[in-house]
Amino acid sequence: MSEKLMDAIIKPVAGVGVALAKVPVPVAGPGEVLIKVHKTAICGSDVHIFDWNDWAAQHVKPGMTIGHEYVGEIAALGEGVTGLHIGQRVSGEGHITCGHCRNCRNGDIQWCKDTFGVGVDRNGAFAEYLCIPASNVIPIDENLDEDVVAFFDAFGNATHTALMWSLVGEDVLITGAGPIGIMAAGICKFAGARRVVITDLNEYRLDLARKMGVDAAVNTGKEDLTEVMKQLNIVEGFDVGLEMSGNGHAFNQMLSVMRTGGKISLLGLGNKPIPVDMNYIIGKGLTLQGIYGRKMDTWHQMSYMVQGGLDMSPIITHRYHYTDFQKGFDAMKSGNSGKVILDWTTKKEG
Ligand SMILES: [Zn+2]
Ligand SMILES: [Zn+2]
Q: Does 198 score more than 60 pLDDT?
């Protein structure tokens, strides 16, 4: 009996690049679900895997299918799976957790110590089919745009970071206008923030942030942030800070413009340790919260925010068929992109 084969984007060897390959269609084992992939989105971490940085070399085994941002439909149910049905539209939580550690038991699955990443530690979603445990399957309403749902994983990081603090009537500073920073800006405006200011050095991405409705998108290489604050009548400093850049200069600038008693959540990982001026944190009584992954409830919050009118579509800048994945990675690596969507719904022959 010959195995059924499918197209997948894999990490072929320990080194730079990814490749389209024929791999076996996975089979849903007990408690698992087989998903037929419709759309995927390229994440910054996929670019790290492409580039084969230290983090990628530690986690990813060559030969593995990459990718973790996707939407699709259930194609098969493994033994014992209930409450889901074939044809149902779904996405999936990308962190597969142990279920019995202290954090899992407490509902803080994002802090599970034995987490496995889809498309990082095990085969991912850049393929015609994907297999995950049923407990990671997220049903998705049919009325949501699949191009947006494709990046709910990243949108979830933005949601978890932004909604860590009360935002109504608050002034928010976001350092780093990558796709997640820009999404967070949209969430903050939607959630009732007074002023939302985002900083970066990349004009293309600052422009994207303007499309998402920020009050100011500041190029800190050219403009004085404190001047912009004056123009926006931000007198005592920012109430809430969202650190998305992983950049020490940006983070220390954030500390310097926070209001006393301000709150900061941090998502941006640096590629080396970041020196921090502790005196700001202590003197201003700041609260800092590290963010990893997303809570399961974040998936509901995203669907409901979109249904309530939050438009995430401006963040999509490129759409390609999956066979043109190299163009998608090139767009991501250029820095002149928001989210890049790959379409898996049609097969191209030849
Ligand atoms: Zn991601
Ligand atoms: Zn756990």
A: yes
The total number of structural domains that make up the chain: 2
Same domain membership, residue 144 and residue 191: no
Average pLDDT value for the chain: 95
As a whole number, mean pLDDT of residues 224-241 equals 98
| CA end-to-end span of the chain | 26
| 143 domain residue, yes or no | yes
pTM summary value: 0.94
Nearest ligand to the CA of 116 is: 2
95 Cα–ligand 2 center, Å: 10
Same domain, 32 and 140: yes
Number of the ligand closest to the Cα of 114: 2
3-class SS shares of the chain: helix, strand, coil, % to 5: 30, 25, 40
Q: Own/partner pairs for 221-225, CB < 8 Å, 24+ apart? A: 225/197, 225/199, 225/253, 225/257
Q: How far is the CA of 44 from the centre of ligand 1 (A)?
A: 6
Gap from CA of 155 to ligand 1 centroid (Å): 9
* 142-156 pLDDT tens trace: 999 999 999 999 999
262 and 127 within one domain: no
322 falls within a domain: yes
Domain shared by 140 and 169, yes or no: no
**How remote is the CA of residue 6 from the centroid of ligand 2, in Å?**
32
Q: Is the pLDDT of residue 347 over 90?
A: no
Domain with 252, as residue range(s), is: 159-290
